């Protein structure tokens, strides 16, 4: 069987799936990917010999965790059962699952077998869809073996509820972007059972994002009684780099105010990042943001999670701090204040609405504003619309096409030839179009979003005949997230596009870039005018801003 080598590019843990029937193996591999949100690489084998060779290669590649799923009978060597009982494989396969036609009989057979204590038994196939896995012993045992294989206990969330509802969608997206393993359980009532570092918590009924953060996330918490040396608004690469530098190099007490998840736009990118220094084989966006997050934790940078900055007030007098007001992201009337001597505005961009009628009605009910690789399997056999002509839109087309979507409408305001999309991505879109997976609609826009409880169809400006869709992904770029800074009393200078204006100020013999017109307030990353919108540039901005803030504080003690 041909398969990719175990390169260092793919850093996921591995499930080795040993099934003698290759088509059945392909089908089950796809189901495992869908259920576990593609957190594991599934490698298929069909013989005992091939399975041993694969496990040997994985041992050489120093994978952290490998789990072997094997059926009872395999050709070319020992049976799957004998492979699972082989203690010499324990150092390679930290978890072992027997796929049995008769699980109860297999459990009896294993009861007195030497070397079988750590073998988990499951039915040979799931009886339910990965999207509606309620009470299916296959998924329960698969979860069990993967949990037991994790070295220190998994942090995960069992999420119950209709996946089409906005609350369930937002909960799953929030948890995934905060690096929590999500297990969708189906059902109708929105509930979450959290497990943090292997310890199961109390069931949460209709939890808010703040409830989920409190139950599952593990950060240094914001202290409302502290006046911080620096408050950073935003959680992207510029923000986290500035916070780490301010804390590690200059000893400043620092808090980050973040409304949803660390990583900013970088964390929701739908491509491997190939050009970030230090990762010659590329790195996945969520993995990179997780490394940044670990860095902030090392230096005990405080976080105010699930809060959106709504107001910045000037100091009441000389020597007094700025006051930042932030509302809970899903409880608009619940706010918190942060006191800080200096402020860094690094809140990036926000995705604008496309502008069609009823768009807001279907937000998170079929209309979405990012598309992650993990979203692909949700739309297998379905029809989606991708609205936009940039790189992100093109990659989204590829995600859905390769995940088995029946049709993808690509809706372009201009022509595909003129779309600002990298040529390599255009070639992928053209390939899918030639395969009749993509229906391109050029020189048009969405005039109206229609449906019942959830989005069902779109009407375009170019035709009065609606097109039926299961979801629409609006991927049309962004605008600076500065609406909250337009208070006339604050007097912060913004340019015509809404970007924060920055300049270089002179402090004695030193120059301090990225300063705004307000003393002690700086800006970095995509939110400032003239910024280069690349991850590496944002990180550079963060480091520069931290140094400028340190210089400012040194001259204004």
UniProtKB/TrEMBL annotation:
SUPFAM superfamilies: FAD/NAD(P)-binding domain (SSF51905). Keywords: Flavoprotein, Oxidoreductase. The keyword RNA-binding does not apply. GO terms for molecular function: thioredoxin-disulfide reductase (NADPH) activity. Residues 228-542 form the FAD/NAD(P)-binding domain. The keyword Oxidoreductase applies. It comes from the Bacteria. This is NAD(P)/FAD-dependent oxidoreductase. It comes from Streptomyces buecherae. The lineage of its organism: Bacteria, Bacillati, Actinomycetota, Actinomycetes, Kitasatosporales.
């Amino acid at each position: 069987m041909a398969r990719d080598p175990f390169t260092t590019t793919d850093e996921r843990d591995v499930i080795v799936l040993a099934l003698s029937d290759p088509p059945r193996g392909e089908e089950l591999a796809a189901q495992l990917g869908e259920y576990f949100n593609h957190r594991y690489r599934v490698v298929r084998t069909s013989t005992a010999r091939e399975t041993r060779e694969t496990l040997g290669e994985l041992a050489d590649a120093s994978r952290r965790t490998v789990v072997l799923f094997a059926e009872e009978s395999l050709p070319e060597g020992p049976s799957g059962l004998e492979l699972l009982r082989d203690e010499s494989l324990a150092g390679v396969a930290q978890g072992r699952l027997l796929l049995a036609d008769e699980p109860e009989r297999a459990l009896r057979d294993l009861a007195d077998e030497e070397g079988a204590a750590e073998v988990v038994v499951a039915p040979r196939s799931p009886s339910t869809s990965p999207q509606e896995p309620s009470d299916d012993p296959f998924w329960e045992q698969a979860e069990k073996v993967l949990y037991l294989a994790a070295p220190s206990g998994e942090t995960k969330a069992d999420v119950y509820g209709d996946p089409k509802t906005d609350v369930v969608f937002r909960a799953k997206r929030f948890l995934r972007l905060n690096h929590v393993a999500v297990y969708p359980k189906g059902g109708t009532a929105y509930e979450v059972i959290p497990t943090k570092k292997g310890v199961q918590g109390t069931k949460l009924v209709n939890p808010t994002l703040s409830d989920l953060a409190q139950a599952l996330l593990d950060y240094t918490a914001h202290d409302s009684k502290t006046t911080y040396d620096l408050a950073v608004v935003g959680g992207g690469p510029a923000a986290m780099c500035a916070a780490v530098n301010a804390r590690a190099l200059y000893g400043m007490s620092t808090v980050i105010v973040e409304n949803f998840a660390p990583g900013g736009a970088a964390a929701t990118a739908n491509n491997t990042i190939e050009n970030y220094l230090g990762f010659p084989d590329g790195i996945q966006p969520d993995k990179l943001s997780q490394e940044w997050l670990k860095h902030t934790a090392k230096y005990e940078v405080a976080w105010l999670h699930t809060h959106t900055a709504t107001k910045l007030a000037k100091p009441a007098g000389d020597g007094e701090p700025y006051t930042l007001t932030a509302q809970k992201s899903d409880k608009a009337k619940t706010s918190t204040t942060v006191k800080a001597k200096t402020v860094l505005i690094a809140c990036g961009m926000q995705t604008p609405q496309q502008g069609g009628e009823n768009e807001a009605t279907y937000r998170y009910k079929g209309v979405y504003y990012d598309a992650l690789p993990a979203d692909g399997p949700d739309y297998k056999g379905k029809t989606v619309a991708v609205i936009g002509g940039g790189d992100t839109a093109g990659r989204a087309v590829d995600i859905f096409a390769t995940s088995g979507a029946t049709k993808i409408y690509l809706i372009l305001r201009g022509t595909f030839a003129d779309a600002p999309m990298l040529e390599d991505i255009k070639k992928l879109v053209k390939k899918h179009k030639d395969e009749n997976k993509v229906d391109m609609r050029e020189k048009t826009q969405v005039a109206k979003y229609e449906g019942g409880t959830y989005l069902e169809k779109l009407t375009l400006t170019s035709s009065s005949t609606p097109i039926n869709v299961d979801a629409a992904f609006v991927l049309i770029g962004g605008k600076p997230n500065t609406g909250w800074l337009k208070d006339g009393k604050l007097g912060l200078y913004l340019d015509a596009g809404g970007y924060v204006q920055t300049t270089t100020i002179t402090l004695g013999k030193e120059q301090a870039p990225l300063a705004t017109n307000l003393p002690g307030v700086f800006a970095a990353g995509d939110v400032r005018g003239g910024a280069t919108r690349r991850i590496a540039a944002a990180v550079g901005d963060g480091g520069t801003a931290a140094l400028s803030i340190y210089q400012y504080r040194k001259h204004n003690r």
